[in-house]
Amino acid sequence: MAFNDSSLPPVSPEDAASLATAVAGSVLLPGAAGYDEERAVWNLNHELVPAMIVVPQSVADIQAAIVFAARQQRPVMVKTTGHQIVGHAHGAVVIATRRMNDVAIDAARRTARVGAGAILSEVVEKAAKAGLAPLNGSNLTVGVSGYTLGGGLSPTLGRAHGYAADHVRSLDVVTADGERRHVDAESEPDLFWAMRGGKGNFGVVTALEFDLFPVPRLYGGAIYFAGERTADVLRAWADWHPGTPETMATSIAVMRMPPIPEVDEALRGKFLVAVRIAYNGTTADGERMVAPLRAIAPAVLDTVRDMPYTEVASIHNEPTDPVPYYERGIMLREFPAEAQDKLIELVGPNVDTALVIAELRALGGAWDREPAVPNAVATRGLPYSLLGVAAGPLPMEQQLKSSVAAMLDGMKPWQADRRYVNNLAPDEAADAASIYGAERYARLASIKKRYDPTNMFRLNHNVIPAA
User: Fold this and answer.
1) Predicted confidence (pLDDT) at residue 296 exceeds the cutoff of 60
2) Helix (H), strand (E) at residue 182
3) Average pLDDT, integer, range 98-103
4) Using CA atoms, how far apart are residues 62 and 39, in angstroms rounded to an integer?
5) pLDDT for 32-87, tens place per residue?
6) Which residue ranges make up each domain of the chain?
7) Strands of 86-150, DSSP E
8) Which fold has domain 103-214+430-451?
9) Average pLDDT, stretch 450-458?
10) 217-423: which CATH architecture?
11) Matching CATH topology for 5-96 and 217-423?
12) 5-96 has which CATH code?
């Protein structure tokens, strides 16, 4: 099913005015005050140019936007923070959900109910007041909905509890027919299965309810070593992490830090290799387990400590403001000595690359186990996630892409046959069947045909409705 959305005509001022009378939020055409603010995304090298932006204040506003888009045969894109945007939204209606950011914590049930526009930091802060924590990602500025629908690979608690999608209790959704649906395992089992892992292919989530965990603190942080010790650190880490308990989540990152004020002075402009850990256990046990890592080489900086859960973003210490970059990831089915040698060759000392970070996350544990209510997450059973991030302005785009490709292509002998959708590039022409695997994709396509037969929600790593 091919679409040429760039050929769609502009939305007329009269049509926009008609929709504006039906919604409490904003309806914005190109050139209108607020349009540029609402189309802004996290990646400064990417641009959205939709035909219209609707900034809803209610579910009814979202319904009106979808009915409008259907009548005009336009695609719909949902945007919270814009951390992962696919395409430029030519001819599309963008629904910018940031105003719908309610967060309610039920301490007795250990759940959170959040609106479509909530971000992870808002959940972490409110849950912490009750001694609870979500399965958040490494960067707390990310939107909860997109992160969770893409699976949600938490580098703090995921190895012990699985994907964030595994712990969704219910979703409130507006589908392509403009209908509100309360989606859970009983009411809409197929749609519930598909949306948890199928990203934004099936509708607009207006609210979601998910589990929280009684984790008020962690032993965590990062140990940074000189990049010249990459081989020693990586091989030691690869030997060390399989023997750790599921309460220990860890990754390793080779980092070429830019010489900019936003970077910690101890790391600024340096070539480093960092081991990041998050341990949900006692500080004494954590220090005992981490001791072999600290013995590898002198640390440039060691931030591993007992911390309140509200400080977990400091473990990865990712940017909190938009930056120009390109990133792409793959999954590895194994990481033997030969793969270790190859990765060192690709990202270690003396490599000329625009890569800022090459990160390898160790998975396993609960990430491998099917949840009580199965879902469409495709990467269970795969032991590693490998991500490349290159940073620089748009004129460097080809260099950024080439640097990421050089690393990932070099690791192809160990690449798995499925992908983690939250780590795909915005312009990556990834066949969704190769993301999910043939059997899972066939089921997704069948459900897509039922709930979105015209493929309204196609501005993503698209599941095409079954023929």
Assistant:
1) yes
2) strand 180-183
3) 96
4) 17
5) 999 999 999 999 999 999 999 999 999 999 999 999 999 999 999 999 998 888 88
6) 5-96, 103-214+430-451, 217-423
7) 93-96, 103-106, 111-115
8) 3.30.465
9) 97
10) 3-Layer(aba) Sandwich (3.40)
11) no
12) 3.30.43.10
**What letter would DSSP give residue 254?**
E
Please state the rounded mean pLDDT for residues 280-309. 98
Yes or no: say if 337 and 236 are a contact pair by the CB < 8 Å rule. no
**What is the C-alpha separation between 389 and 11, in angstroms, rounded?**
36
- Alpha-carbon distance 430 to 278, whole Å? 32
Which letter does DSSP use for residue 435 in this model?
A: H
pLDDT band at 350 (very low <50, low <70, confident <90, very high): confident
Supply 270's token pair. 């340096």
Phi/psi for 275 (5° steps) reads -105, 125
| Nearest partner of 163 among 340, 378, 347, judged by Cα | 378
**What confidence score (pLDDT) does residue 262 get?**
79
Going by pLDDT thresholds of 50, 70 and 90, the confidence category of residue 231 is very high
HSE-up of residue 142 (Cα within 13 Å, Cβ side): 23
Dist. CA 363–CA 323, nearest whole Å: 28
3-state helix, strand, coil in the chain (%, to 5): 35, 25, 45
Nearest to 364 by CA among 457, 262, 244: 244
Tell me the whole-structure pTM to 2 decimals.
Answer: 0.96
For 379-437, give the DSSP string. Answer: -TT--EEEEEEEE--GGGHHHHHHHHHHHHHHTGGGB-S---GGGS-TT----HHHHH-
